[in-house]
Specification:
Layout: E1 25-32, E2 38-45, E3 56-63, H1 70-86, E4 92-98, E5 102-104, H2 115-126, H3 135-143, E6 153-160, H4 171-183, E7 188-192, H5 199-209, E8 213-215, H6 230-253, E9 256-263, E10 268-272, E11 279-280, E12 285-291, E13 299-307, E14 310-318, E15 320-323, H7 329-337, H8 349-376, H9 380-393, H10 398-409, H11 419-432, H12 440-446, H13 451-481, H14 486-501, H15 508-575, H16 579-592, H17 597-636, E16 646-647, H18 651-661, E17 667-668, H19 674-684, E18 691-697, H20 698-709, E19 713-715, H21 717-722, E20 730-735, H22 740-749, E21 753-758, E22 761-766, H23 767-771, E23 777-778, H24 782-785, H25 799-813
Parallel strand pairs: 1-15, 3-4, 3-6, 6-7, 7-8, 19-22
Antiparallel strand pairs: 1-2, 2-12, 4-5, 9-11, 9-13, 10-12, 13-14, 17-23, 18-20, 21-22
């Protein structure tokens, strides 16, 4: 587990990262105690001129533990979407779901946009939030995610709460993980999101590996009484999360360099972290420690760093600032860093250092208030000790000095402390983290015989009493906030239950009682959570129904508007007498309102009007044609003379004309060779001897005819195969006294076959295939289209003359 002596836990706020200057710069803040010991905080800004690699391989660790549910899960997903949207197209991503195990959702690094990453995202959404988070497994998986031969820039992004309950990270494990990540050159940037976050661990990882930390803003919850509707709250949470994801994407693109060797001023007596952490182009790197004397001149600092395959020498020059009381917290910060050589320092840039200062001062203010309360209740000894603890960390604290002086002068300053007083003092000493060896009261107590056993028993009693009070406070807080935020209450109560189980100062009976009370409160919170979820579900159902009703109304209004527009077009077409187009437009109106009366009436109206107009046109045409016919009838009654007369030739002349045209009755444009003429002649021959076939294969029957008539006959096998007719199909037939043409047609028709004469062979084929073979023939029709020649000669000198004579003769007879 992380060093418990660290100062508090970073609160849920957004840690902004200021941009560094274009060139390397340094700042040295100092604080000098009354005994002459001077502490410092050096801020190194590497600048933005560091080499930047365009392509990055990013490992995204997405927390899927049981704490990441409901709105927190939605916010984390939105942050992931913002991260993917902000990455460069040349970057690659590997998405890993982490809880008790680390499961890669893609086999390899993939593009941040496209079907592959959407498939991985779908797998993530289908993964239920269960169990706890094993941060050691997650971080080790990230460190081993890259191929050693890869030369791309690397980055790790963690989205989750950072709470590792299943496998607590002690100093040794944390040191090994950080060394592996530095060896892989993989800086970790995190988004802390969840009902309870371990920002301290995430800040340490970011500080030691050259990453950054973004602590999610508090979620916005729906509150109808305050006018905050669920959709508005959801939209605001998604917006904030997407912005956080975009910031994570920007952090992956920043340049990070890895120190190889560093030369610090000799006046730096102690430096923490003992090894300079990686430097980034978008934030400063903080070193703290103790000076071996005053700073009288600018201090040079040189750091040899690696960027890819290159090595760069960064030179910093810092001028020591005068001692500032605001930097008094550096004394306690350096004291804590000595325990692990600065491994667990959460100072992520200037902003992280400022946040640590704010937390220390806030803790000291609370301890000062506790000392004032102790002095007011007459606990002068406890007030003195708490005030001493505050003054040890902040010697210039006037309130603590005042409490210390008043408590020392009080009449009961030397009385024995009660158990409650001892609990308050123990709480103050634990919060201020003052070593027992430096406390005068502790020194006097240890000089007495048997003091070790007595102090251990007394300390156990104090801690047990403190734990009981903490449980009472936790239960009171749970009852106050259970209705509003049962998720957080359940998490806090479970954490308190876990702390009780791990407290060796408690006896079994007290443990059982406290755990029973906490479990009862957890069950009650669970019931409240279920009630709240049910209320939210009902509220969401009502909102969903209202939204559905609004959508239905909107669709209805859009339908009415569309129908109105199309009816206006329909009326315009009707006014222009474009009835067919009006019928089509009425059909479009019917598509909008299939069951409506308006489109039906419009269709009938357009058809009726169109038919009426057509009937009017036909009626007008009929009237016009009637009068034209009457006119022609009247005109036909006008006589005309038979000049010249129509004369018809005699019958023998018509017979002679017919005989002379007989050979031209049909002319085949296709030229025929000798083989085809031979086939035609053979087809016209009469069958002498009987032509009989009894169950004879088709091919044998054709070969027999081929041999008898000496003509070439072939089978169109592809066409026969299409009709599923084999050359072995049996044929049964008997013909005599008819032409070969008729015999072939009769025999082949039973098999749905026929023949054509083509390419000097008689080809047996299917009727469908034969229909595709067309023959062009020309027939003389000149006598049907040539004009009749008139002649004035007698007899039958011309057809016209004959017809004229006949006509005249006929008319004369009349």
């Amino acid at each position: 587990m992380l060093n418990a002596r660290l100062i508090g836990v970073l609160p849920a706020l957004l840690i902004f990262v200021s941009m560094a200057a274009a060139e390397p710069t340094a700042r040295l803040d100092t604080y000098r105690q009354s005994d002459g010991v001077t502490f410092f905080a050096a801020s190194l800004a590497a600048g933005q001129e560091l080499p930047v690699i365009d392509r990055h391989d990013v490992v995204v660790l997405f927390d899927t533990s049981a704490s990441q549910t409901s709105l927190y899960r939605d916010s984390a997903i939105a942050a992931l979407d913002g991260l993917l949207a902000g990455l460069s197209p040349s970057d690659r991503v590997k998405l890993i779901a982490v809880d008790l195990t680390a499961s890669a959702l893609s086999d390899q690094f993939i593009a941040p946009k496209g079907d592959a990453i959407q498939a991985a995202r779908t797998k993530l959404l289908a993964r239920p939030p269960l169990g706890s988070t094993d941060m050691e497994t997650a971080l080790q998986t990230a460190a081993n995610a890259w191929d050693e031969a890869s030369d791309t820039a690397r980055a790790v992004v963690y989205i989750g709460d950072g709470v590792s309950m299943i496998n607590l990270l002690n100093g040794q494990k944390l040191q090994a993980l950080i060394e592996d990540l530095i060896a892989a050159r993989a800086p970790i940037s995190s988004l802390a999101v969840g009902p309870r976050t371990d920002t301290q661990l995430l800040a340490v990882l970011a500080n030691q590996t050259g990453g950054n930390l973004y602590v999610a803003e508090p979620l916005v919850f729906a509150d109808p009484d305050q006018g905050i509707l669920p959709e508005r709250a959801e939209a605001e949470n998604i917006r904030r999360s997407r912005l956080a994801g975009a910031r994570l994407a920007a952090w992956t693109q920043a340049a990070v360099v890895w120190p190889i060797d560093f030369q610090l001023p000799k006046v730096f007596k102690e430096v923490y972290p003992a090894k300079v952490p990686p430097l980034r182009s978008d934030r400063s790197t903080i070193l703290i420690g103790q000076l071996d004397g005053p700073v009288t001149e600018p201090l040079p600092m040189n750091v040899l760093v690696a960027s890819g395959s290159e090595q760069i020498q960064l030179s910093f020059t810092a001028t020591g600032q005068p001692s500032n009381p605001d930097q008094a917290f550096l004394a306690s910060l350096v004291e804590r860093a000595r325990a692990d050589a600065g491994l667990t320092l959460p100072t992520v840039g200037d902003e992280g250092l400022a946040e640590v200062r704010r937390l220390v001062r806030s803790n000291l203010d609370q301890l000062t208030m506790l000392a004032e309360q102790a002095a007011t209740t007459g606990n002068t000894q406890g007030a003195q000790r708490i005030a001493q603890a505050v003054l040890h960390h902040d010697p210039g604290n006037l309130r603590a000095e005042t409490v210390h002086l008043l408590a020392a002068r009080a009449p009961g300053a030397g009385r024995d402390a009660s158990p409650t007083d001892l609990r308050l003092v123990a709480q103050a000493e634990s919060a201020a983290d003052e070593p027992a060896a430096e406390s005068p009261a502790s020194t006097d107590f240890e000089a007495q015989p048997g003091s070790f056993l007595d102090s251990h028993v007394e300390h156990s009693a104090i801690v047990a009493e403190l734990i009981r009070k903490e449980v009472e406070l936790a239960l009171d807080d749970a009852r106050r906030t259970m209705s509003e935020n049962p998720d957080q209450v359940i998490q806090d109560l479970k954490l308190a239950r876990e702390n009780i189980r791990r407290a060796p100062e408690l006896d079994m009976e007290t443990q059982t009682v406290l755990i029973s009370r906490l479990e009862s409160a957890i069950k009650e919170a669970g019931q409240r959570q279920a009630d709240r979820d049910e209320r939210l579900r009902e509220q969401l159902e009502r909102q969903r129904a209202a939204r559905a009703q609004r959508d239905m109304n909107d669709r209805f209004l859009r339908t009415i508007q569309k129908q109105k527009q199309r009816m206006e077009s329909f009326e315009s077409l009707m006014d222009e007498n474009r009835y067919k187009e009006a019928v089509d437009m009425a059909g479009l109106v019917e598509e909008v309102d299939p069951n409506g009366v308006v489109p039906r009436v419009a269709t009938l109206w357009a058809r009726l009007a169109g038919n009426e107009r057509d009937m009017q046109i036909i009626r007008a045409e009929r009237h016009r044609a009637f009068f034209d016919a009457l006119y022609q009838s009247e005109r036909s009654s006008v006589p005309f003379p038979d000049e010249p007369p129509i004369v018809y030739p005699p019958a023998d002349v018509w017979e002679e004309l017919t005989y002379r045209r007989k050979k031209y009755r049909a002319v085949d444009l296709k030229s025929q060779g000798g083989a085809e003429e031979k086939i035609m002649a053979a087809l016209e021959e009469q069958i002498g001897e009987p032509l009989e076939f009894i169950e004879t294969p088709l091919s044998d029957a054709i070969n027999l005819i081929k041999d008898d008539y000496k003509i070439e006959i072939q089978l169109d096998k592809p066409a026969l195969e299409d009709l599923a007719i084999s050359t072995d199909t049996p044929v049964t037939a008997s013909y005599q006294g008819i032409s070969l043409r008729s015999a072939l047609r009769l025999m082949l028709s039973e098999l749905e076959l026929t023949y054509v004469i083509k390419d000097e062979v008689l080809l047996i084929t299917t009727q469908e295939k034969a229909s595709e073979e067309l023959t062009v023939k020309v027939y003389p029709v000149a006598d049907l289209v040539l004009p009749i020649q008139n002649t004035m000669m007698g007899g039958f000198g011309g057809l016209g003359g004959g017809m004229g004579g006949g006509m005249m003769g006929g008319m004369g007879g009349m």
